[in-house]
């Protein structure tokens, strides 16, 4: 039998076939969906994308996502699968694991969670039994649904004790966290938030967890990309387990990841599979590996620092227009903005900005008098605009455009033209 040589070794790279996305085929087979893809690209390119949890992945990440790896079932872990034919996807997962461990200085990494929420569920599954106590940040003060909301599994299945921020400073009250931990003796303490713009004192959380014998979980979904870029301190040295999404600032595919100390590796792996989910999405695992390689570059470190600088400039610009930044500023990629000084709600501001081509979200502020779907604030983030190449000087213009959109609803079309001119100077997915 003759030697079988991979086709890629016989052909120049320009002639290697690509068994992935073929837009022409999609357009011919399903023009309705093809049109939606184009419309979404047009939407993203035409407006300002200020959702703090969104970003533009690289074409390389998108290529991995659209690859034939999506066809492969691979329940289990590399070298320990429940299906045959996993030799190649094993390689991709091992590469991703090693990149994650090196990038974050972690002893163990699991790339299989389908989302950040899935990663959080696995942490609960590994360390807490239903009915046991968990101490986590209150959703109205900036926490996440998986930190104990009554409409979420966490609030339904576990005894959640919530901590928040001080009313006078709008900063986490670490004395309150300690007092609650001593009183309630939680099995797990969660640090991390979705609408908290300041650095978190992970050493303080570690000390509190040790004092009461609790597991420390850090939900780093929002800021892990800043950690990857060495722009803010890492929670990894302090936490038993770190859960996060792989999109947002990290600029990878939609998905989740877990880092942990080696002593927790087996327990967490079993909590992901088979406890909480079945087969991993191997195209997503490969795309995560690509994003991790990108995040280890000097260019990404520069990007991460620029994200923070842009967020601070945007917050300052909005403050100049009478929109107060909660806690007095930001240390991260996002700012939470109190609109009560303008006499508008977050819901109204979101709609008015949307009419002018500016995408952002309403958000509750601490001690908010409005219901969540109305809210007194908005949340703005700079991951996407920074990916597009915008800088601090552009953020002043962005703040001006937001202020005009809220103050001059009748000028929405005119403001949208100005928005279009700005993003044309910094296009998303530029092919020029």
Determine the fraction of residues in helical runs and give it as a percent range: 40-55%
Q: Cα-atom Rg, whole angstroms?
A: 23 Å
Category by helix and strand content: alpha/beta
As residue ranges, the low-confidence spans are: 1-5
Beta-sheet strand percentage?
5-15%
Report strand order across the widest sheet. Answer: 4-10-9-8-7-5-6
Distance between the termini: 49 Å
CATH homologous superfamily label of the largest domain: Type I PLP-dependent aspartate aminotransferase-like (Major domain)
Per CATH, which architecture of the largest domain?
A: 3-Layer(aba) Sandwich
Shape: globular
How would you portray this structure in words?
With 432 residues, the protein is α/β, with parallel strands linked by helices. The protein folds into two domains: 68-295, Type I PLP-dependent aspartate aminotransferase-like (Major domain) (Aspartate Aminotransferase, domain 2, 3-Layer(aba) Sandwich); 298-425, Alpha-Beta Complex (Aspartate Aminotransferase, domain 1). It has 16 helices and 15 strands. It has helices spanning 23-29, 31-46, 59-65, 87-104, 116-127, 153-157, 174-184, 202-212, 224-228, 265-276, 282-295, 298-320, 346-355, 383-387, 392-407, 412-425, and strands at residues 48-49, 76-77, 80-81, 108-110, 133-137, 159-163, 188-191, 215-219, 241-245, 256-260, 324-325, 334-338, 358-359, 361-363, 377-381. Strands 4-10-9-8-7-5-6 form a seven-stranded mixed sheet, with helices on both faces. The chain has a four-stranded antiparallel sheet with strand order 11-12-15-14, with helices on one face. Strands 1-13 form a two-stranded parallel sheet. β11 and β12 (334-338) form a beta hairpin. α5 (116-127) packs across α10, α12 runs parallel beside α15 and α15 (392-407) runs antiparallel to α16 (412-425).
């Amino acid at each position: 039998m003759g030697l079988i040589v991979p086709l890629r070794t016989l052909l120049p790279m320009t002639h290697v076939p690509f068994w992935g996305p073929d837009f022409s085929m999609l357009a011919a087979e399903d023009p309705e969906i093809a049109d939606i893809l184009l419309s979404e690209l047009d939407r993203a390119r035409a407006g300002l994308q200020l959702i703090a949890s969104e970003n533009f992945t690289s074409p390389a990440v998108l290529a991995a996502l659209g690859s034939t790896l999506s066809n492969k079932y691979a329940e289990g872990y590399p070298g320990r699968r429940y299906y045959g034919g996993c030799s190649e996807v094993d390689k991709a997962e091992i590469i991703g694991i090693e990149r994650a461990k090196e990038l974050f200085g972690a002893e163990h990494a699991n790339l299989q969670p389908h989302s950040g929420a899935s990663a959080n569920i696995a942490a609960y599954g590994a360390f807490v039994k239903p009915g046991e106590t968990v101490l986590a940040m209150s959703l109205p003060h900036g926490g996440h649904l998986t930190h104990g909301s009554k409409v979420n599994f966490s609030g339904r299945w576990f005894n959640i004790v919530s901590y928040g921020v001080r009313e006078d400073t709008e900063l986490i009250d670490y004395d309150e966290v300690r007092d609650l931990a001593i009183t309630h003796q939680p099995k797990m303490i969660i640090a991390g938030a979705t609408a908290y713009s300041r650095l978190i004192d992970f050493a303080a959380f570690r000390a509190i967890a040790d004092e009461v014998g609790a597991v420390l979980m850090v939900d780093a979904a929002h800021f892990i990309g800043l950690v990857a870029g060495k722009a803010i301190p890492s929670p990894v040295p302090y936490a038993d387990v770190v859960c996060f999404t792989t999109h947002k600032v990290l600029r990878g595919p939609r998905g989740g990841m877990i880092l942990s100390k080696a002593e927790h590796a087996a327990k967490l792996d079993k909590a992901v599979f088979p406890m909480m989910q079945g087969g991993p999405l191997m195209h997503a695992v490969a795309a995560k590996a690509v994003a991790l390689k990108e995040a280890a570059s000097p260019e990404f470190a520069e990007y991460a620092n620029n994200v923070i600088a842009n967020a601070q400039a945007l917050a300052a610009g909005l403050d100049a227009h009478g929109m107060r930044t909660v806690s007095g500023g930001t240390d991260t990629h996002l700012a939470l903005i109190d609109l009560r000084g303008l006499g508008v709600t977050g819901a109204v501001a979101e709609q008015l900005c949307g009419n002018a081509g500016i995408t952002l979200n309403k958000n509750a502020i601490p001690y908010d008098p409005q219901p969540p779907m109305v809210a007194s604030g908005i949340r703005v983030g700079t991951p996407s605009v920074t990916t597009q190449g915008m800088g601090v000087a552009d953020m002043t213009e962005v703040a001006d455009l937001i202020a005009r959109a809220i103050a001059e609803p009748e000028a929405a079309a005119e403001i949208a033209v100005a928005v279009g001119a700005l993003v044309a100077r910094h296009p998303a997915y530029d092919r020029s």
